[in-house]
Amino acid sequence: MDNQRNMTAPGPIGIFDSGYGGLTILHKIREKMPQYDYIYLGDNARAPYGPRSFEIVYRFTLQAVEKLFSMGCHLVILACNTASAKALRSIQQHDLPLIDPARRVLGVIRPTVEAIDGMTRTGHVGVLATSGTVKSQSYALEIHKLYPDITVTSLACPMWVPLIEYGEYENEGADFFIKKYIDAIFAQDNLIDTLILGCTHYPIVADKIKRHLPGGVRLVQQGEHVAESLADYLKRHPDMDSKCTKNGHTQFFTTENEEKFAESASVFLKTEINVKGIELE
Ligand code: DGL
């Protein structure tokens, strides 16, 4: 009886990322919807997910989703492009009907793609992401579903996540690697006028990226679009909205060292936070 009540009681919105990157999404979501409760879960111990295989990313992401469900979340956002690209569809189609058809898992790729409507004048869009997201071709597939005539060029930036995860992104050396990938994508297609940051970590280096962009190129950062889309989703689904508690609290969990997470997360969120360790299996 108690168990059942716990499973159906309203709970926080779960925000999952492989590490710190999802904090850029959480930040924008909380700005837009400060009244909701959130649980942020970073699988820092196993990050980065970008170079990992489909099977591993799917398994790790499913573990995180199940953990967030067991903590009372009815709605989980995969605030990670790699997880959205490689695990979302399987979880939605295969796992959710078995776990609990009333719960929901949403990703970040679709809201980002919806947001570029009308942005490009040249019809050429670039996507910078992890190698996993690029290999999955999820962005190109989603973009072509909505805008069949757009030319999409995707490029993996494998050095960017480690620079961010290891706190090296503010050092001068970081500029070398930022410029390297920006130059590479424009060398592939110099008609790109809209550049999507298809990795939740990349907004952390957005200022450096902007410095190396050709004039007139629009940089698309996901946070506000995901926040907008979530707000819209909850408006359209009052039943799910009623299952989300609203006390303005956020709890943070990491699979790695709590102190290290708290220190880095405070920088990203510009506020002190408390973090608890958690195991996923
Ligand atoms: N947060 C991931 C993403 O958005 C990047 C980090 C990783 O590779 O784990 O793709």
Brief overview, please?
With 281 residues, the protein is an alpha/beta fold. The protein has 14 helices and 10 strands.
Radius of gyration: 18 Å
Q: What does the largest sheet look like?
A: 6 strands, parallel
Low-confidence parts, pLDDT < 50 over ≥5 residues?
Answer: 1-5
What is the helix content? 40-55%
Strand order of the largest sheet: 4-3-1-2-9-10
Query: How many strand segments?
Result: 10
Average pLDDT metric: 94
| H and E order | HEHEHEHHEHEHHEHHEHEHHEHE
Percent strand = 15-25%
Shape, per Cα inertia axes? globular
- N-C termini distance: 27 Å
Tally of helical segments:
14
The oligomeric status of these chains comes to single chain
| Ligands present | D-glutamic acid
Query: Structural class of the helices, strands and pairings?
Result: alpha/beta
